[in-house]
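Q: For a teaching session next week I want to show students how multiple molecules come together into a single three-dimensional assembly. I've collected the sequence lines for a complex. Could you give me the predicted structure tokens for the whole thing so I can convert them for display?
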Amino acid sequence: MARPEYDHPITQLPDRVSRRRYEREKRARQEAEQLLEAKSRELYDANLALQKQAAGLEEAVAQRTAEFEAARNEAESANAAKSIFLATMSHEIRTPLNGVLGMATALADSDLTSEQEEILDLISDSGNLLLSVINDILDLSKVEAGMLEIENVPTSVCDFLDGMCAQFAPKVREKGLRFTVLYSGLLSAGGVWAKFDPNRLSQVLGNLLSNAIKFTTSGAVAFTAEAVHLENGNLQLNLIIRDTGIGVPEENSEKLFQPFTQADASITRKFGGTGLGLVIARDICRMMGGDITCLSAAGDGTEFTASIQMAPAKCPETTKGLQLAENETVLNQRRWRVLIAEDNKTNQLVLKHMLKRYDLELVIVADGAKVVSEWRSNGADLILMDVNMPVMDGLSATQTIRADELEGKHQPVPIVAISANAMVHQVSGYLEGGMTGHVAKPIRKAELIRAMALALSETATAPT
Amino acid sequence: MKGMVFVELFRMAETVMSEEDLDNIIDHIDLSTDGAYTSVGNYPCSELIKLVVAIGDQLNIPVTALQTKFGHWMFSRFVDGYPEFFEGKQNAFEMLEAIENEVHVEVLKLYPDAELPTFSTQRFSGGAGLKMTYSSDRPLNHFCLGLIEGCVEHFDRPAEIKMRDCSEDGRCRAEFMIEWAK
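A: Of course. Below is the structure for the complete assembly, covering every listed component.
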């Protein structure tokens, strides 16, 4: 396109400009300089103001961050203090309770009149109830401290569920309710093995089943279990517990999963409970890759679904562990020499009573140093070792004994740890420290006998 | 009015008249700065009108025609000075539609005190036509016409442009009906 003609100069520009043109251009230039100077000053001032504002903002942000951090630290330490308090209190209560329950068990083995037996049953039941409440509180503080541990072991799913049903079926029937059990999906064929924590899962399922029984006065409790394959290669286990009980009003269903809260304050008066069970159960399910959900309406029964993910496992060729009768046979094989290191008088008494039926040579000492010297002087077939003791603790005593054995090329003596600190990482610490087994406090007789029999039978079969 | 417009008017005038002639015109008009304009300054619009009238007289061109020519000139200055505004614009309609909401927004960021006219736009004939309405305190309808013509020429697609003066009560207003040539 042609450019307009005024784009091209039509006159030759002169070499020199006139004075008036020169003056005008000079004046224009000066004015431009003044304007630019003013503009520069404005920009400079604006820039300064911005820098100042930015510095102020940085300071405000830093201060706010510090405030938040302090508040967070405060909240965290308050929460930690609460968890430690709960854990300590629970531990402190468990120790005397251990005495009460242990003595009750010992008393049950003696000759009692039927009236005394009734009284003793009440003592045992109340003690066990108190123990379960304390265990719940301890679990909750572990959950809140992020220290609840899950120990997945290969387990037969159907055997596990059968065991749970066998435990609860009599309680359902006692209340005059019907109890239906249905295995579907992979479980209908049986023989499913998977890795999960049977202790924790029984806590979940036990909680849901006992709630169903507790809140149902007529009708039925229906238990459905199903397992399905997941795309990630795992199995999902869904446990559905339906009841025809009082139900949960929709507006209260949120409260079910809040600690120390029940759907309605009157529930506590009518049915008892701390309101911790479901909270812990849900946390356990979540740690196992699942959840607990609840469907209910007031007066229309309740349906809880607990789900977990499990890695599939193979059925092991032999299952380790002996039955109680076999265990007792091992203990009665000969007069085993058993050293007991335990500083607490009550616990000493509990152990003594639990073992009095067996013909054992029991030597009880109160600290680690004494057990080492007793073992050095007279040897032993088995040592039951408390972990926390004055003078020398159980782990140090064990290490001293193991070092002596290595030096003198002796056959290692089995050492069973007995401790209330029974978290998975603590137990593996004992085993790494040279101990051969572990029994948790409060001591249950069957467990103690099993652990002792296992340790002694390995000694008996070990090459000498 | 921005000093840039005065400076460009002189530059255009000097392509068709001698410095001497332009200086004579400037000397004979009563101007606040005696005709010393800088592109970064601000000056009364009335002085621009006086200058256009005087230059038109000197060249024997009607004021309206000179305004239109000056519109063409200014548009080519915009093309050279502000290519970023033309990026992504497919045709003259898209460019004209962008003046109010894109170009003027940026102008106000750089010159917060600028007094800008308004350019509202509306398509008609299913998009084949564009109605553009200019509204300002300044009587520069024909300068606008020149700008629009310059824009159409820049995008090299012929269009028919009709202008209708709708000024009233001292406010200058003009409607431009632009349709692609058939």
